[in-house]
Amino acid sequence: MLTDVRMPHLDGVELVRRLRDLRGHRWPVIVMTGHADVPLAVQMMKAGVVDFIEKPFEPNRILDSVRGCINALASLRPEIEAREAAAARLATLTPRERQVFDALIRGRSNKEIALDLDISPRTVEIFRAKVMQKMQADSLSALVRMGLRIGDA
Residue 123 and residue 45: Cα distance in Å, rounded? Predict the structure, then answer.
């Protein structure tokens, strides 16, 4: 997406935020402006833009940036597919398995989860094994990465 900072009914910062919220992930966004300053550039980068171009600009500057975004989109598809697959697996968890999943990705230990859910640590181990199997995670770090990926959605 290529947009300007100053527009009639919506500024560029708000547009980038809404796109991020609407799409559930970051699409490459290029912002151009004739009214740049450092705080605005920082704000736009924090909002998720990949390039911030000041007017007037050389045509090649925009073309290079757009090419970079097209390349980024090509790599975005596998990430979207992985997020969707993880979300589909998450939907298969029972409510209790989901509670264990949420606690695990927050870094809680089996004992802490057991205390929070008022179940035995052995029962947590059983639920943890079921969660790992259903989520197709071969390690706790893989499970956490899935949780982060789904949380970005």
Answer: 45
Residue 153 confidence (pLDDT): 45
Check whether residue 31 and residue 63 sit in a common domain: yes
Distance CA 62, CA 29 (A): 12
The residue range of the domain holding 96 is 92-151
In angstroms, rounded to a whole number, what is the distance separating the alpha carbons of residues 50 and 27?
9
DSSP code for 28: P
The torsion angles phi and psi of 126, rounded to 5 degrees, stand at -65, -45
* Per-residue pLDDT tens digits for 72-113: 777 777 888 888 999 999 999 999 999 999 999 999 999 999
List of residues 6+ apart from 39 with CB closer than 8 A: none
